[in-house]
Amino acid sequence: MKKIFGFLFTAIILFMIFLILRNINFFEVYSLLRKINLIYFFLAILFYLIGFLLWNFRFMYTIKKLVSGDFYFFLNVLFAGSFFNTITPGANVGGEPFRAYLLSKKYKKSKSKILGAIFADKSFNLLAFSGFLVFSVLFVLFFIQMPLWTKISLEIFLLCIFSIFILFFLFVFCDKKLKLNNFMRLLYWFKPIHRKFST
User: Fold this and answer.
1) Residue 80 exposed, middle or buried by CB count within 10 Å (0-12, 13-18, 19+)
2) pLDDT tens per residue, range 69-84
3) Do 121 and 43 reside in the same domain of the chain?
4) Most CB atoms closer than 10 Å: which of 22, 37, 56, 188?
5) Domain carrying residue 170
């Protein structure tokens, strides 16, 4: 049974890889590779790998109270999760449940708790990228000439980002009035939620 499951799983992965690669013009890729500076190309790969190592250290620190494990196993799990995120269509979150499954199986811990820790780590990662995005938009606004409507659109986008940041910090750090239970009670009065949940 395990062999059949393994075969089907491998077949699904190969099919998804085929869907990704089928429309790539490899001759054009080869032509571009011949023109690039190889030093910068290998430096980009090196820094990308260093990014994975730092990400792995950070995740191990985040989850250390729940799981204290081997660095190389965590790194293998991270690579496997990133691979699934790459081949998963849509929101690219297929790797997180897979990472939670592998870690829970190895260390005999709750899948839900590990998945929660993984999503918490991903959330802080998203906050960091959001910060870089804000600085990038500010740079464009102040130093690059653009049409008026484009500038107004970017300013509205920045305002939305700052509003989300403020609401997030209020939600996390303020007193009990903004705790999750009260927030859920407010959401409950919306009809789509009210119809589907009894309490």
Assistant:
1) middle
2) 788 999 998 888 888 8
3) yes
4) 56
5) 145-199
Give the closest residue to 48 by CA, choosing from 13, 78, 71, 68: 78
**Nearest-angstrom CA–CA distance, 177 and 171:** 9
Enumerate residues 6+ apart whose C-beta is below 8 A from 139.
Answer: none
108 and 49: one domain?
Answer: yes
CB count, 10 Å around CB of 166? 10
Place of tokens 């269509």: 89
Q: Where are the alpha helices (DSSP H) in 63-94?
A: 71-87
Calpha distance 160→165 (Å, rounded)? 9
Instruction: Report the distance separating Cα 101 and Cα 111, nearest Å.
Output: 6
Same domain flag for 105 and 69:
yes
Do the Cβ atoms of 57 and 112 come closer than 8 Å? no
Domain total for the chain? 3
Model pTM score: 0.60
> Is residue 97 in some structural domain?
yes
Q: What are the Cα distances from residue 142, in Å, to 33, 38, 95?
A: 35, 34, 38
How would you label 44-58 residue by residue, b for 16+ Cβ within 10 Å and e otherwise? eeeeeeeeeeebbee
User: Model confidence over 9-35: pLDDT tens digits?
Assistant: 778 777 877 777 777 777 777 787 788
